[in-house]
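User: Predict the complex.
Assistant: Input components as received:
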Amino acid sequence: MSQTELERAVGEVLIDEDTLRTRVAELGAEVSGDYEGRDLLLIGVLKGAVFFMADLMRHITVPCEVDFMAISSYGDSTDTSGIVRILKDLDINIEGRDVLVVEDIIDSGLTLSYLMRNLESREPASLEICALMTKPSRRQIDVPVRYIGFEIPDRFVVGYGLDLAERYRNLPYVAVLASDLQPAEI
Ligand code: IMP
Ligand code: MG
């Protein structure tokens, strides 16, 4: 089968489909165990977390609802400024609810740190984070993350919801772009 234009842009697959599927199922089982007997509200951070959240939910066995928030950080696209703007707020009142924020990736931690402070002020019964990936070496501010799918090195990744300028979200795996590979890696 010949490579598609999309596949040609991929330099290196960092997390393949099977590995993603297995880990997402494990996270779903862990969440289900921890929230046994409670109703869960999943809050997805648009747009990147949608893909992960849809798969994660199908492994959650306690009653759960979903809502979404869209936020954007001021400044350029690859570096977070820490100043965050809410583009779309929740539809649901989270007061007294058990809330799990689902995020695609934590880099500096600034976006999520702002979001958590904002959500905390709405007085949920509990508030935790589930992130598919984290880049610990990039962290500027500590965010307590209850569930982590994968720790990855300081590389810019795309696929499984993650984008570069809105593209590559539809790759079924997590990859580094060919244009991002260092000469020594080619
Ligand atoms: P933070 O505020 O620096 O933690 O930024 C987190 C946000 O930056 C994520 O929700 C992503 O939208 C974006 N981001 C960080 N690293 C990557 C990456 O490697 N690929 C794609 N998006 C990323
Ligand atoms: Mg994002």
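Residues 51 and 161 are 5 Å apart (CA to CA).
Let me know if you want any component modeled separately.
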